[in-house]
Design goal:
Elements lengths: L7 E6 L2 E6 L7 E3 L2 H15 L2 E5 L5 E6 L6
Parallel strand pairs: 1-4
Antiparallel strand pairs: 1-2, 2-3, 4-5
Length: 72
Amino acid sequence: MEPADGDVETFHDGSVWKNKVVGNTRASGSAETKSEAVAAGRKLAIKRGTAHFIHTKDGRIGERRTYPRARS
């Protein structure tokens, strides 16, 4: 399954890990370690109620987690 607009991706870029909302042109944030970036990406995906795609260092999708919006 491929990421859709609004989903959050965590990926390696150069020497840092980044989070980006699919469809946006800029990254939402960066971190020195993958675990820090994954934690920040998870928070962002939960807040947005979307899927979180976590890539491996070589760019492949390693994990996908889904955080549906809470219903009131």
